[in-house]
Amino acid sequence: MLTSKLLCTLPDYVTTPDGMAVDSEGNLILACPNFGPPADPSQPSPPGCILKIGPDRVPRKWFDVPPSPETGIACPMGIAFGPDGDLYICDNQGWSGKPELQNKGRILRVRLDGDRIVYAKEVARNMEHPNGMRIRDGYVYVTQSMLSGAKDPSGKLVSCVYKFPLDAEGIVVKNSLEDEHLLVTFVTQNPDCQYGADGIEFDTNGDLLVGNFGDGTVWRIKFGPGGEVVSSEPWACDPEELKTTDGMCLAPDGSLYIADFSANAVVRVTPDGKVRRVAQSPDCDGLDGGLDQPGEPIVWNGLLVVSCFDTVTGPPHVNTAHELPATLAYLEIEGI
Q1: pLDDT at 63
Q2: Domain containing 178 — which CATH number?
């Protein structure tokens, strides 16, 4: 197996790093929802923010994500750049588990001029659990890890993917099967980990790949000529190699890399659907480059960079504690 290395430690205003993207200048952009407790417990948690990391690997704050007028906070997770350079953000307020925030998530569209926010628009609001994000052909595709308004006869968790036009504004989500922009749903079968759609990516054929976190399964969604879903089927699953599917990204050779959140591991799925763990760490603090609860991978400057979420403890997770400073790790993989 490969050994991960430390890309950088993060400033003290970051407690939980998560989603990543690469901007038009080649900088690594990092979303920090900051769910973890601060170093000084007497202080409030730092606000959700976006960092920028250049070739020197030195992180700096790009901007604080504009808080919801209703809740006063923002919790940025999945991010992606639109074709016009605007940054789309999953504001996952429901992840905290606080009942008053359950359906307060948003999709934001932020335009910047340098470090100055020109505008921040709500593409959609009242979302229960927006998590991962990809943009393709004029639409933003968003995983919602919980869809409590949809009930499966089994009683097990339903989750979904939403598809919003990039130029949409003010969509009010119902968090049910009645939502106009609902694309596809999933049911998490694993009774011990009821957490649903998370990682999301498009493959080289234009098929949508979605990870059902609790089942450790990647689904493949195929589209018809009008963009309609024609099939949604499990594509990659191996319980010995892949426990949970958090963020995922496609490498230049068509391989899919997945952050196995619970196992402190990174997994590769080849284009034929074969699953193999390529790196794994024991419980650690990440300061030596260990995979400290990997949340999302991304290909950047010839490396596979991995954010270390390091916040959730207890079974089935290897992680046992939240430590600071927060870290980013990387893997050197041939062909990336």
Answers
A1: 98
A2: 2.120.10.30
